[in-house]
Design goal:
About 90% of the residues lie in helices and about 0% in strands. By secondary structure, the protein is mostly helical. The protein is globular and about 40 Å long.
């Protein structure tokens, strides 16, 4: 079963979204230094202005991201170790995910979301790449 298939099951979808939100929370919390400070402040600003926004955003982004990520995961399945393949292709995974969020943010009506995203976008690929091991664990659990 792929992640898209798992997301089509409403009972599983809710659990996957909750785990993905926790993954984002954990990744943000793990950031340090100046860029970590910016990420944490931007993330907390969005959360405080619109409570529930992160879960809502994950719910909207996840189906499109799943479609973009599944070919990379499936290549790993064919190679015999999808998690390892996914982690070795962090840049490809990050580009796929960011292409979805870039398109969604571009269509957003929220100036706050757009400006915060634009401010953080330059370092986003590095941060997404750092999240790939946790993301691989989520995929392994639900799509493996």
């Amino acid at each position: 079963m792929g992640l898209s298939d798992a997301l089509s099951d409403e009972a599983k979808k809710s659990a996957i979204i909750d785990e993905a939100v926790k993954l984002v929370d954990d990744e943000v919390a793990s950031k340090s230094g100046i860029s970590g400070f910016a990420v944490k402040n931007g993330y907390n600003a969005v959360k405080s202005i619109k409570p529930g926004f992160i879960k809502e955003a994950v719910g909207h982004l996840l189906p499109d991201m799943a479609k973009k990520l599944e070919p990379v995961w499936e290549d790993g399945v064919k190679a015999g170790n999808p998690r390892n393949h996914f982690e070795k292709n962090r840049g490809l995974v990050a580009d796929a995910m960011l292409s979805v969020s870039d398109a969604k943010v571009e269509r957003s009506k929220s100036g706050m979301v757009k400006s915060t995203y634009k401010m953080l976008r330059g370092s986003a690929k590095k941060h997404v790449e750092e999240a790939v091991p946790r993301l691989a664990g989520l995929l392994e659990k639900h799509a493996g």
